[in-house]
Design a protein that fits this description.
Elements lengths: L2 H14 L4 H8 L3 H9 L19 H8 L18 H17 L4 H8 L3 H10 L6 H5 L5 H8 L1 H5 L1
The structure holds zinc ion.
Zinc ion binds next to helix 4.
Amino acid sequence: MTPTEQKVRKARRLIAAGMTRQDAATRVGVSRETLRVYLDGAACRFPGCTKLARNRGLCSGHIQQERRGEDLHPLSATKANTMISIEDAELDVHEFEFMRHICGLSPVQAVVRLGMSPYVIIDRYHRLGREVPVELAAIRSVRLATARRMVDPMAAAS
Ligand SMILES: [Zn+2]
């Protein structure tokens, strides 16, 4: 069994015990995408890509590359789908708290301004072993599209 398989096995037990996938992934130290591939299906056929295959064996990112007529190449890592360092997590949390307390934005506005979903910020707090602010936990079910509309009414029209 590979180290990743061991982690996924542990995550599977946590999920069976009622933990969310996101929390289980964070707890055992695998990305949510990796966990999804192990639990739901095959990985993208592009070598080294760990995202879930959607169509013709490719993940959404690689399907887009194909549609744009590009040679397939590695997707650039995003903060959302990689295990980020403590330093990066600290930066994100610091930025979030800056917008909340210095700029006076609501949690939803701060999240949107950062271009992240509430899940990602919550993940950062978990990564640092810090307690998730109550008001942040409360918006975790808010979808980013809804959040955008609340901040920028014009975005809803487009
Ligand atoms: Zn891919």
